[in-house]
Amino acid sequence: xxxxxxxxxxxxxxxxxxxxxxxxxxxxxxxxxxxxxxxGKFDEMRxxxxxxxxxxxxxxxxxxxxxxxxxxxxxARMRWxxxxxxxxxxxxxxxLKSSGRPLWxxxxxxxxxxxxxxxxxxxxxxxxxxxxxxxxxxxxxxxFVPDGVDTDVFKPFDVSDLRQAHGLEGAxxxxxxxxxxxxxxxxxxxxxxVIETVRLLKDRDxxxxxxxxxxxxxxxxERARTYGIEDRIFFTGQVPHEEVPRYxxxxxxxxxxxxxxxxxxxxxxxxxxxxLACGRFIIATDVGGARDVIRNNGVLLDYQGVYDPNHPARLxxxxxxxxxxxxxxxxxxxxxxxxKERFEYQQIxxxxxxxxxxxxxx
Length: 362
Known about the structure:
By secondary structure, the chain is an alpha/beta fold. The protein contains 16 helices and twelve strands. Helices cover 44% and strands 16% of the residues. The longest helix has 17 residues, at 103-119.
């Protein structure tokens, strides 16, 4: 079977990584070509359509709802009858609406999203709640296949050299990894709670680690300067994915904050399996996929709405308690087995292969 995977992301992005890992473990009966979005959405849609016309695949697999990949797949289905699957993680309309983008743009995205989801042969939902929600509209055509992790790469190991290099020896480190995209509507971005927690714990040896880049990074740095804690926050900026396990192991506590709305509830997030695989103690909000995997290896915190002003105080209280009971942090190692059982790429591709076989794509 000839499959074209259309990735609405660059080869270096999270979706590019998921695509390559999926392809690596698919049946040997599948001949797979990966096409990444490297430029503007409409230019890339034309390029994808051209590639499909020339190659005539038996199946198209679209990574994430997006104009480039989704539009090309829709055209190929209408013009040449090529079926397609969509690998879906975030409800795009709700995500844009939450970010404060213009309402007309959100509604346009909603129309495009549902056109793609209805036309797809099946939807591969990466979050359990998202899968259940979509099943009410497309029963029998939605399947849950979560985000994955390579546990040969993401695993616990010593990073004392990294701690020493960045002045983190002896400190309790809390951190996050992700795209730091600022929301004008809610005045926050990924990592805001780490900054606020370190501020609240000025009297303790607690330091923050924020890994990632985006238009919110400068705002986080400015907030840290305003609070007088810039020397207690280590901003790495963007790092190559192969280096990410080192920075996760630099964190004593990984923070996974998902908002209590349709966006947060829809997600497993690629970061959570990576935190688990590295054996880190996790403090997560009691939302979405974290509920199913946080046991003795972490703590779930209540979270209200999109922006919860009381969240940093709850987080700081728990971090302060862990600072007094550091032996508890070793329980994070229980996450390694959870990652292997639930999120190892070989496992999730086996699930995906079963879905494809049931649909007659084998």
